[in-house]
Amino acid sequence: MSESAANTPSGDATARIENVVIIGSGPAGWTAAVYAARARLDPLVIEGGPSREMIPGGQLMFTTDIENFPGFPEGVDGQKLMADMKTQAERFGTRVVTDDVVEVDTSVRPFRLVTRYSGEYFARSVILATGARANWLGLHNEERLAQSGGGVSACAVCDGALPAFRDQVLAVVGGGDSAMEEATYLTKFAREVVIVHRRDSFRASPIMAERALADPKIRVAWNSEVVDVLGDDFITGLRLRDTVTGAESTITVGGLFLAIGHTPNTGFLKGVVDLDDAGYVIPAEPWRTGTSVEGIFAAGDVMDAYYRQAVTAAGTGCMAALDAERWLAHGVEGTPHEIPAEPVASEPIAAESVAADS
After folding, report:
1. Which of 42, 100, 158, 301 is catalytic?
2. Which of 159, 301, 304, 323 is labelled catalytic?
3. Which DSSP state fits 9?
4. What structural domains does the chain harbor?
5. Which of 24, 155, 177, 314 could form a disulfide with 129 if both were Cys (CB 3.0 to 4.6 A apart)?
6. What are the tens digits of pLDDT across the range 265-324?
C-alpha cells in the first residue's frame, strides 16, 4: 500500500510505514504480536532496552517460578516463558527492535515514533504494552536477591505459594490496601506475617486495615523502615530502623514482599494519551483497549492497576491486537490497509481451536 508524502512528517514517501507497532515486550506485547502476525499485519515490536529497573520481557524476567500461568502444571521460569512467547511471535513473522521509544508524535498520521538509538518509525496503529514496574526500597541486597530468586518479591499472589515461603515468617513492607491484601493472602502459607510500616497507623482503608489487624497470624512492626536485607543466596532477615528513635534491630524472616505500589512505564506518553493520576493509560471505553487517541491501543499493566497478572496482561494483549486489526480494516485516513498476498509465516497458519467470541 502506498502512502502519500503528505502522510509522513518528513514528506518522505519512501519511508516504511508499519501497520502496527507494539511498544513493549511482556506477556501483553508478545501476545499482541502473535495475534497481529497471524492476522498478517506484519507487526514490529520495539521491545525496550535494558536498564537498571527493567529489561526486555518485563517484570517476569525477574521471576524464577511462575505457578499460576495456565498450561504449565509444574510451573515455568519467567525468563523461559518470555523467551518462548517471543519465539512464538517471531515464528509468524514478527520483527523485533531492541530499543526504547522516547516520543510518540500523534500530530501526524501515520504516527511518528522516535526511539533512543535506532531512529524514527511510522505506524498506522500503535499498541502500548510497556507495563509497570514495582516500586522498590532501593537497597542493594534487595535488588540482588529479587533478581536471583532469593526470596524477595513484589507480588505475593505471584510468588507467595511457592514452597520456599511455606511455613516461614514473611515480611510485607507497606501500609496501604495492597499491603493489607498481600499480608492477608500470605497467611494462607506463612507461619507468621510481619507488616513493616514506617508510621504508627496504616493509610489503608479502615476495613482492610481492621481485617489485617484482626488476623492472629499478622503482627505489625510500627514506625519501622527496612535499612538492609540480610542473606547471601536467600533472604534470612531484615535490619530495621525505628523512624522515631533511630534505633536499629534485626528480625529473622524467610521472605520479603514489597507492597509500596507500582509505577506505569508511561513517562513518554504524558500529553499523548489520557493518563490517570497515577500515570496509567485510561481506556476510552470499558472492556476495550482503545485510548483517547484513535489508532492507539493499550494492553497489560500499563492500563491495569488492579489485576496486574501475567495471564490478564496476555488477555488484553489479544484484545488490543484484535481491536487494532478491526480499526485498521475500517480504514486509516479512509483507506483500509492491504493484507500481504502471502502469509508472513513459512508454514500454514492453523485456525484457532476456539472462536474469539465463544
Report:
1. 158
2. 159
3. T
4. 5-133+262-329 (3.50.50.60), 136-258 (3.50.50.60)
5. 24
6. 999 999 999 999 999 999 999 999 999 999 999 999 999 988 889 999 999 999 999 999
Alpha helix (H) ranges present in the chain?
27-38, 78-91, 140-148, 156-159, 177-186, 206-214, 310-329
Predicted TM-score (pTM) of the model is 0.74
Q: Would you call 158 a catalytic residue per the annotation?
A: yes
DSSP strand E in 181-309: where?
192-196, 218-221, 224-230, 237-242, 248-252, 255-258, 262-264, 296-298
Catalytic residue (one of 155, 304, 318, 323)? 155
CA–CA dist 313, 282 (Å, integer): 15
The answer to whether 318 is a known catalytic residue is no
Q: Assess whether 159 carries a catalytic annotation.
A: yes
pLDDT at site 254: 98
Residue in this structure with the C-alpha cell 490496601, named with its chain if needed: 177
pLDDT at 124 > cutoff 80:
yes
Alpha-carbon separation of residue 9 from 17, 23, 112, 344 (angstroms): 12, 20, 7, 28
Number of other CB atoms surrounding residue 4 within 10 Å? 10
